[in-house]
């Protein structure tokens, strides 16, 4: 299996603290050593860093841990391969362009009969069940709205319905973003927390590191973090329910459904 | 304008030496300070590093200069903005998936009436003439071969014909790769060099750095580098002709046409 990490914020925020915790699970405190990746949106652009090597001792992960890249929408993944060999093309997150936007996605879980999923115009490059499912979701979306969806909220509602179908084929926890919205879909396990004023100190579970958010934020900041397992051990994370989807934008919940 | 750098090799080879020279032109020895990017293929996967900041003092460029990422197909770009503001979404190279492969592209030049270029299913995310032209090329390719091209050589031949049309609209020097093949198209300026045994010492033009390739290669290695301006000052680079396209694979010329 794998682990997911997402962030939605109302001001460009770096993810160094959370990523420092997550990357330890990629070969040190956890078994997810078969590659990792992270995508940072900056307006309509997206910057993705990927490495098929374990995150805990990756040179590229050192850069991501230490160099604060600020973003309002981030998604990250550490991989423990089940379907598809260890390789760059099988490393999450995956990205495709649709309607003049980059859509980025990462998956935790395992699907059966994924090769039967219809896809086109989007085609998998690698061999993971995850990328097949992503191509299926975006292809369904593109085919359902040949002239683009009348709103992006409608597009995400449509994706959530299709995610319910994938949930029936196995384990399908996933994050999907277009740079503004971030959809978190829970099949078995996903937690989230929204940090806002008054901020306090948070302590990582996987590393002897804490951060005093009062030193790094202003009173108006709203930052939501989503993760497979809580990343801190002194905060209350909310547990999502199987079949639940939450659509975030600028750190706030926009729509909650299912579950 | 901008500068291009490409590499095609028959063994995974790093591009640290050439990139060290190129990045200096992004704000120090050259005016191309409006962002930079580089894409490294690893089999069917592609790893892209981009930054809208000047390459000569970019943290991300430090990683690319110092950490040898090995690849058989690389393309890089440093930008001096003319069409489209300085932003991540306007930073080259651009990537799209078609037929289960990632196609990556970078452009040097300036096109007139680029907004008239027909595109779809691929849509620009940013506002550069370069990305419009890329979406035009891939859309024409996808529409011409609805069930994919019978060979990738045929696909690149088709792209070259369309590149000739873009050449008539302004300046269109470009690099385009699917990970195996790399097409270099010259509208005004592009140079290339193939290094093979017996290897010797090369000296950068932009920095007091030289490299003894005999220490880094085996007798069978073939490495071609393509650049807007020669990157070394003690080697013979070949100048491409306006309208000329060269398709490389594994460091060797596969097809040369036009010019």
From TrEMBL, chains A, B:
The lineage of its organism: Bacteria, Pseudomonadati, Pseudomonadota, Gammaproteobacteria, Alteromonadales. GO terms for molecular function: transferase activity. Keywords: Glutamine amidotransferase, Transferase. Transmembrane segments: none annotated. This is Class II glutamine amidotransferase. It holds the Pfam family GATase_4. Coiled coil: none annotated. Residues 2-251 form the Glutamine amidotransferase type-2 domain. Gene3D superfamilies: Glutamine Phosphoribosylpyrophosphate, subunit 1, domain 1.
């Amino acid at each position: 299996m794998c682990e997911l990490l997402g962030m939605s914020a109302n001001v460009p925020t770096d993810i160094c603290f959370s990523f420092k915790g997550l990357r330890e699970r990629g070969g040190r405190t956890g078994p997810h050593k078969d590659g990792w990746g992270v995508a940072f949106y900056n307006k309509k652009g997206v910057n993705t860093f990927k490495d098929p090597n374990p995150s805990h001792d990756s040179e590229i992960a050192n850069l991501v841990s230490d160099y604060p890249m600020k973003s309002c929408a981030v998604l990250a993944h550490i991989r423990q391969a089940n379907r598809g060999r260890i390789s760059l093309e099988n490393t999450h997150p995956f990205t495709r362009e649709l309607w003049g936007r980059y859509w980025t996605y990462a998956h935790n879980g395992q699907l059966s009969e994924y090769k039967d999923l219809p896809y086109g115009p989007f085609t998998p490059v690698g061999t993971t069940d995850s990328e097949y499912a992503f191509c299926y979701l975006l292809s369904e979306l593109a085919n359902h709205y040949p002239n683009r969806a009348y709103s992006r909220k409608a597009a995400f509602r449509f994706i959530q319905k299709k995610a319910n179908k994938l949930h029936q084929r196995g384990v399908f926890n996933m994050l999907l973003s277009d740079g503004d919205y971030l959809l978190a879909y829970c099949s078995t396990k996903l937690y989230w927390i929204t940090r806002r004023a008054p901020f306090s100190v948070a302590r990582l579970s996987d590393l002897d590191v804490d951060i005093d958010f009062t030193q790094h934020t202003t009173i108006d900041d709203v930052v939501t973090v989503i993760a497979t397992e809580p990343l801190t051990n002194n905060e209350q994370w909310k547990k999502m329910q199987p079949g639940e989807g939450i659509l975030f934008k600028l750190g706030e919940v926009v729509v909650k459904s299912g579950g």
